[in-house]
Design a protein that fits this description.
There is one protein chain. By secondary structure, this protein is of the alpha+beta class. The chain contains 5 helices and 6 strands; from the N terminus they run ααβββααβββα. The strands form 2 sheets. Strands 1-2-3 form a 3-stranded antiparallel β-sheet, covered by helices on one side. Strands 4-5-6 form a 3-stranded antiparallel β-sheet. The longest helix is centred in the last third of the chain and has 12 residues. The radius of gyration is 17 Å and the shape is globular.
Length: 120
């Protein structure tokens, strides 16, 4: 994944977010949800399974609503360069998927957000 800012620099944030952060104290919980977060919550979406076919350069993320999100394995460099055994060693959570042997995480939100961009 490409970084959106250089290490050691402060990323740019909107004035609206900066104002919200300035008004909050350390005990406040700031809930910033958009329509994508709401859809995930309302539909109870989760990643159920992960599969791959290296010879087809294919990664599959199967959701609990039977939807399948596909990516090219080569577009996921941390996974593309991993051993097959390590790719098979994953755990799923409410928010995404984790490969402990690789120390790699992928969020459902991120996958769905990218899916939106790719289908537009």
């Amino acid at each position: 994944m490409r970084k959106s800012f250089k290490s050691g620099t402060t990323p740019l944030i909107s004035g609206e977010l900066q104002a919200l952060l300035n008004e909050a104290d350390e005990n406040d919980v700031i809930d910033i949800a958009d329509d994508l977060d709401q859809m995930i919550l309302d539909k109870g979406l989760q990643i159920r399974h992960f599969g791959f076919a290296r010879d087809l350069d294919l990664a599959l993320f199967i959701l609990n609503d039977k939807r399948v999100i596909t990516r090219t394995l080569s577009s996921l460099p941390y996974l593309a360069n991993a051993e097959d055994y390590d790719l098979d060693q994953y755990t799923v959570s409410e928010t995404g998927i984790h490969w402990p042997n690789l120390d790699v995480d992928m969020s459902l939100r991120g996958l769905l957000q990218e899916e939106r961009v790719l289908t537009k």
